[in-house]
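WARN no homologs supplied; continuing
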Amino acid sequence: MPAIETAGGGRIHRFLHWIRTHKLKTILLIVLLFVAGEAMTIPWLSIYRLRSVNPLMTSLMRQRQEEAQEAGRSLRIYQHWVPLAALPRELINAVIVEEDGTFYSHGGIDWFEVKESIEKDVRERRAARGASTITQQLAKNLYLSTSKDPIRKAKELIITLLLEQALSKDRILELYLNVIEWGRGIFGADAAALAYFGKPASQLSLDESVRLAAVIPSPLRHTPVLDGRYLTRRKQMVLDRMAARNMINQPRQGETLSSADTTSKPEAIEAPGEGQSTDTTNTDSTAVEKDGHDGL
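OK structure emitted
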């Protein structure tokens, strides 16, 4: 037994000596092991199944439920799947010009916007400007979280490139419009249209489409049915961008933007929020399983 202990102690001593004399190699080895471990959490197979299978629950939906649970509440999830072809062109165009004007021309990452974002952040010494494309937002919603962790951001970039490689642009847009957050417990265009306007997304008007697009950057702070300064400014910005691309005729002030009724909740969907159990509806009977990865 002493001989075994001596041999074991000798191996440990030699290992520690190697670390002390090869510090750079040790650091590189640790980094490689960390990267390999993180790579194993990437949902490779799940991403490719998105070609034909619709996700039922997303990482962001689970995050919101966990946040509500930590606050002593429950959160019911509203989400109804709608094919891209059934959504109004006005809504699709409004979302693109609001969130990612070069969506159909970049490979998932808008490097010009990344450069502009970094320069502005450095000037203002804070995270002042976002640079996430629609594909990056989809990656975050499906598999990650709202964390600002640099490791999370690195994984987001990897998943973004995989999504762009595995899926068509139209499929990415369809997924995005069906899973993004549009309010507390409201995910996807159809649930948002029912919650705010009492109608399916396929029947949205230009004004309603622009309203929904305008609040995407901050859906928990702003609602598309209250005409405050934020919504009015962003609606006009979206309309100006659409007009500049010949997507609509340039409206005169107040001509196209009709005020939505804010006096009552529509009966088509219960007011989402607390004290309710999860109830996610998906018209496709299949759902993506994350291969054991939650993306968190």
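The longest strand covers residues 181-183.
OK
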